């Protein structure tokens, strides 16, 4: 569910088909009490929407952008070229090349316009949200405390000894 009260993080993705992956970023932000807005913005299919979003993202109140795309994944880099906000890129696991195409397209930005690139797929989406929260936590004690709690719960959830699957 999107939170609409002045969202701090924009989650953008190239296609509806990216949502099952990018929802992991949304769910993680939700768990950390970070407001977000999620929308489909395709570098190839909706270039005007990309320009409009990117050029107004900062003035619209966003502080961080998370951009997920697959294949020839231009979305994060193009968005980064048109906004001064930090952009974290999530390579979607593509069918043909298992996301290696997405990863290389996003990570290999030429010097001058950075995209903070995360891992392929779910791990990247979750970690992009954690990175966004860490950025916001620098100036937001509530998010900082939520992030500390989240990490503490993660540690507590790890058993000290492995169990056999059949037990
Ligand atoms: C990219 O093309 C999207 O980010 C998506 O990962 C990929 C495939 O899109 P669909 O053909 O599934 O819409 O722009």
TrEMBL record:
Family: Belongs to the AIR carboxylase family. Class I subfamily.
Keyword Lyase appears in the UniProt entry: yes
Domain PurE: 7-158
Protein name in UniProt: N5-carboxyaminoimidazole ribonucleotide mutase
Pathway(s) it belongs to: Purine metabolism; IMP biosynthesis via de novo pathway; 5-amino-1-(5-phospho-D-ribosyl)imidazole-4-carboxylate from 5-amino-1-(5-phospho-D-ribosyl)imidazole (N5-CAIR route): step 2/2
Sites where the protein binds substrate: 15, 18, 45
A matching Pfam family: AIRC
GO terms of molecular function: 5-(carboxyamino)imidazole ribonucleotide mutase activity; phosphoribosylaminoimidazole carboxylase activity
Function: Catalyzes the conversion of N5-carboxyaminoimidazole ribonucleotide (N5-CAIR) to 4-carboxy-5-aminoimidazole ribonucleotide (CAIR).
Keyword annotations of the record: Isomerase, Lyase, Purine biosynthesis
EC number(s) recorded for this UniProt protein: 5.4.99.18
Catalyzed reactions per annotation: 5-carboxyamino-1-(5-phospho-D-ribosyl)imidazole + H(+) = 5-amino-1-(5-phospho-D-ribosyl)imidazole-4-carboxylate
Cited Gene3D superfamilies: 3.40.50.1970
Coiled-coil features, chain-numbered ranges: none
HAMAP family: PurE_classI
